[in-house]
Design a protein that fits this description.
By secondary structure, the chain is an alpha+beta fold. 42% of the residues lie in helices and 20% in strands.
C-alpha cells in the first residue's frame, strides 16, 4: 500500500546526468525541487526551474501545483518500471554570469548555453561562433600547447572535434579542415585565462546570439491551423515574435518590456498589445490550450520581474568590467566584485530569480483550478487572464538602502583617481 502512494521521478540535468527522487502521490512540484537542491548541494537554483514536456514543448512547473496536474491519469495509475521525467532547464536568462552565485549552478548554466549555441541558427553571426568555440575550449581543455608541441600533437590526433563546438550548418559551410585550422589560433590567444573566467566569457559572448538567450513557445496564427507557424520568444529584455518560413525563422517583432502594454489570454487565445506610440495592431495568436497559456503568461511575468529587479546589479557589473578592460581600478574591481557577491547573497536579487512575480489579474481562483483535471480546461473556457506592464519612469523595485552602496563605490573610485 505504501508503494502505491509513492512515485519515482527522474530529473534530467543539462549535463546529461540525472537525479532520482521518490515523492508522495499527492506531492507538489516544490517537493521535487527540494530534493534537487539537496542532491546538488546548493541552496538556490536561481536561473533554473523544473519543466515537463507537453506537446513537444517545455513547460515550467508551478511549484505550488500538484505533480498530478502535469502527468494526468498516468500519475494516478503509477508505474513500477518507468519513472516520471522532469527536466532541469534555464528559465531566466541573465546578461552576466556573475549574477549566478553558485559555481555549480553557473556550470550547469554554461552547459545549457553550450548546447543552445550548437543548435543556433544565427547564420549571420559566424564570427561569434569562433569566439564561443575558443572560450569553450579554454574552459574545457585549458591552455593550448605551445606551437612546437602542437605540431607534434597534430601527427597523431586533433585535440578537439568541430562537431562538439560548432553548429552543423557552419561545419557544412566552412568544412572541418577550415575550423581545425583557424579555431586553435583564437584558442591560443586565451592562454592564461582560468577555467572560471573562460566560462564567464562564454556566457557573456553567448548573450549576443540572436537566438541564444531565448525560450521559445510555439503558437498558431489561426485557431484551426494544424501546424504552429509562430514562435514567441521570451528573452532577457523583452519578447520576440518569429514566423517559420520555408524552414527558416523570420523575426517579425522585437519588443522590449517597455514596448508592451499588456498580455491577455482567454482560453487558448493569446493577445499582445503594444504601447500606443508604436501604432501596432493587437497581435492575436493561439496556444495549444488554456493550460499552456497560463504557463506562458507566468513565464513572461516572472521574466519581466527579474529583468527589473537585477537591472541595477547588471549595470554596476558592466561598469566594473569597463574599468578592468581599460586597465584602471584593477585592484578596486577585485574588491568590489567580492562585495557585489555578498550583496547579491544577502539582498533580494537572489531570491527574485526563483520567486519574482508581477501581479496577474485573474477572474478565477487558482486554488480551485488545481483540483480540476486538465481535460476539463477546454478550449472554449471563458476564463480570462491579463497582465499589464506598468513601469513608471522613476521606481525602485528593491529597497534603495540595499543598492545605494553601488553609487557610493563608483563615486568613491572616481574621487580617489
Amino acid at each position: 500500500m505504501r508503494t502505491k502512494q509513492r512515485r519515482q521521478v527522474c530529473i534530467l540535468l543539462p549535463n546529461k546526468q540525472h537525479l532520482d527522487c521518490t515523492v508522495r502521490v499527492k506531492a507538489r512540484s516544490r517537493e521535487v525541487l527540494t530534493s534537487v537542491l539537496r542532491q546538488l548541494g546548493v541552496s538556490d537554483l536561481q536561473v533554473f526551474s523544473l519543466a515537463v514536456l507537453r506537446d513537444n514543448e517545455y513547460l515550467f512547473l508551478d511549484l505550488d501545483q500538484k505533480l498530478s496536474k502535469y502527468f494526468g491519469k498516468r500519475w494516478s495509475r503509477g508505474s513500477r518500471t518507468v519513472p516520471f521525467i522532469v527536466f532541469l532547464r534555464v528559465q531566466y536568462y541573465v546578461e552576466n554570469g556573475l549574477l549566478i552565485l553558485s559555481s555549480k549552478v553557473q556550470q550547469l548554466y554554461y552547459t545549457e548555453l553550450r548546447q543552445k549555441a550548437l543548435r543556433s541558427q544565427s547564420r549571420h553571426q559566424e564570427a561569434l561562433f569562433f569566439q564561443l568555440a575558443a572560450s569553450a575550449l579554454q574552459a574545457e581543455v585549458g591552455d593550448l600547447q605551445r606551437e612546437e608541441e602542437k605540431r607534434q600533437e597534430r601527427k597523431h590526433r586533433c585535440y578537439f572535434l568541430p562537431e562538439d563546438y560548432f553548429p552543423s550548418w557552419l561545419i557544412k559551410r566552412r568544412g572541418r579542415d577550415y575550423l581545425l585550422q583557424h579555431c586553435p589560433v583564437l584558442h591560443g590567444e586565451l592562454r592564461g585565462v582560468s577555467r572560471s573566467q573562460a566560462i564567464l566569457q562564454f556566457i557573456k559572448e553567448a548573450s549576443s546570439l540572436q537566438d541564444g538567450l531565448v525560450t521559445f513557445y510555439r503558437m498558431r496564427q489561426e485557431k484551426k491551423e494544424l501546424r504552429s507557424s509562430i514562435l514567441l520568444g521570451v528573452a532577457v529584455k523583452g519578447v520576440r515574435i518569429y514566423q517559420g518560413v520555408e524552414g527558416k525563422l523570420c523575426l517579425l517583432y522585437d519588443f522590449s518590456w517597455t514596448n508592451i502594454d499588456r498580455f491577455t489570454f482567454q482560453g487558448s487565445r493569446f493577445e499582445i498589445a503594444a504601447v500606443g506610440s508604436l501604432c501596432l495592431p493587437k497581435l492575436v495568436y493561439y496556444t495549444h490550450s488554456a493550460f499552456h497559456s497560463k504557463h506562458v503568461l507566468k513565464h513572461l511575468s516572472d521574466s519581466h520581474g527579474l529583468c527589473v529587479t537585477t537591472r541595477d546589479a547588471v549595470n554596476y557589473i558592466q561598469q566594473l568590467e569597463d574599468m578592468q578592460a581599460s586597465q584602471f581600478y584593477k585592484e578596486a574591481y577585485i574588491c568590489d566584485m567580492a562585495r557585489l557577491r555578498q550583496t547579491l547573497q544577502s539582498g533580494s536579487l537572489t531570491s527574485s530569480m526563483s520567486d519574482c512575480s508581477v501581479a496577474v489579474i485573474t477572474s478565477t481562483a487558482w486554488s480551485k483550478e488545481e483540483e480540476e483535471e486538465e481535460e476539463e480546461e477546454d478550449e472554449g473556457s471563458v476564463t480570462e487572464f491579463e497582465w499589464c506592464i506598468d513601469e513608471p519612469e522613476e521606481v525602485f523595485v528593491d529597497n534603495p538602502a540595499e543598492v545605494s552602496w553601488l553609487a557610493e563605490l563608483v563615486h568613491g573610485s572616481e574621487e580617489e583617481s
